[in-house]
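User: My advisor, Dr. K., asked me to get a structural model of this assembly before our group meeting. I'm new to this, so sorry if the format is off. These are the inputs:
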Amino acid sequence: MDITGDSGRLLSKLMSAASRRADVIANNIANQSTPGFKRGTLAFEELLASEMKRGGADLLSILPERQTDFITASKANGNNVQMELEVNAMNENRLLYETYAAIMAGRMELVRASIDERG
Amino acid sequence: MTGISELFSGFRASSSGTTAERARMDIITTNLANAQTTRMPGGGKPRPYQRQQVSFEPILRRMANGEDTIEGVRISAIEPDNVTPFEEIYDPGHPDADPTTGIVRMPNVNATKEMADLITSVRAYEANIKAQENFIRMAETALRLAQ
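Assistant: The format is fine. Below is the predicted structure of the whole assembly, which you can bring to the meeting.
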């Protein structure tokens, strides 16, 4: 029996993508003084959105993609990490993660209520 | 992304960041402390302290699919600065002055530059700590789901 459904699985994939994105951002912050280092990003929500726009039904088969940002201008040492940007991304990512977790908790509460007859 | 080792990879990245920045701060403070050192151990003609500088490199880890990913940072080398020239001042009374010319060679440490580097390093250290706190809060959020 499947009590979480497709959207529950999608939610957990969103959470794991956000947790991987936190890894990528932490890496950028750790390497902010490494010569030649290019900042990494993790695309997932964008990929989901473009698949939905395309009318594709199989959202669960989409995997998060780690990308390297060659576009942002580099400093003299070839490094393009900007501290403010990374801290913003980190905070934004945590809020996303907590939002997903809150939705997940709400769903689990529903399941729990339906199992527990006292509701 | 399988295996328990993946779980804390970001946490390890930021802790490697604090370690590397701490080492950089150590080198900077050594430079500042020795800004007036005119005679290094070793005998012979007095040789001033030469400022040290660190360079960073990313830590690479081989993934299951054969690709390398960057996971944190480490100090790749601590090298003496051979480019910046020593400052030369005229002070014949100085014990390490050249007996014929009266010139004392001072270390190639620029206190302003070192202080600027120190501030950069401290800020980077703090940012890595912030990233660690971020991981802790995310883990707490995930744990609350299990209650």
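One thing worth pointing out at the meeting: Chain A has one domain: 5-115.

User: Perfect, thanks a lot.
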